[in-house]
Amino acid sequence: MTIAADNIIEVRGLTKRFHGFAAISNVDLDVRRQSIHALIGPNGAGKTTFFNLITKVHQPSGGSIRFNGEDITNEDPARVARRGIVRSFQISAIFPRMTVAENVRIALQRPKGTSFHFWRSESSLSVLEDRVDELLAAVGLEHMRDQTAAGLPYGRKRALEFATTLAVEPELLLLDEPTSGLGTEDVERIAALIRSVSANRTILMVEHNLSIVARLADKITVLARGKILAEGTYAEVSTDPRVIEAYIGGEE
Fold it and tell me: PROSITE patterns this protein is in (predicted)?
């Protein structure tokens, strides 16, 4: 099978069963390169399982996953991450006792193979500082670089997680509920950040805030009970009677 040049990911017949229960059932999905693609659906639709299959937290029970034209169906999570598929989780994954700048610096060391060189002097890592500053500026944290991460407000912790994620230069960024638990001001900040970081990379996101999905997503896939219910623009899927019924019957 040859992947279309404008698709970064192509999934065919993807299935995942847990003790006989099909959490994902025969899903076909294409993600266009340099787009924002949203995956939505009522609770229990299979969205997180789908992410786990792409990042190889779970191995599929059937079907195939291709990334940049290469079959990654049976690859391990580390190999998939090295290809440039990076996932940002619902809960911030940062080092709370380190400063904002130190968190980003650690993330930058990973592609250079120096992630665990904690015994080196800070001056030996000064070559990274320009990039640290660039990333902090990109997420609006440049004025907080010397603060301890634990003391940041929740929304700023999410912004720091974005910076550490971008530090590993992902080609495909998977965002798992990026606005979950945020107040209105932080939701707007994160939405603007998603838009700004989408340049020159592809974003696949799971998001419950449909107003954010409507504003950001180029294409939307609706999952229900492990299957694709509808696909298209927000205007198309939001007026689909099947989608309306699934949300009324399935959302908490």
Answer: ABC_TRANSPORTER_2
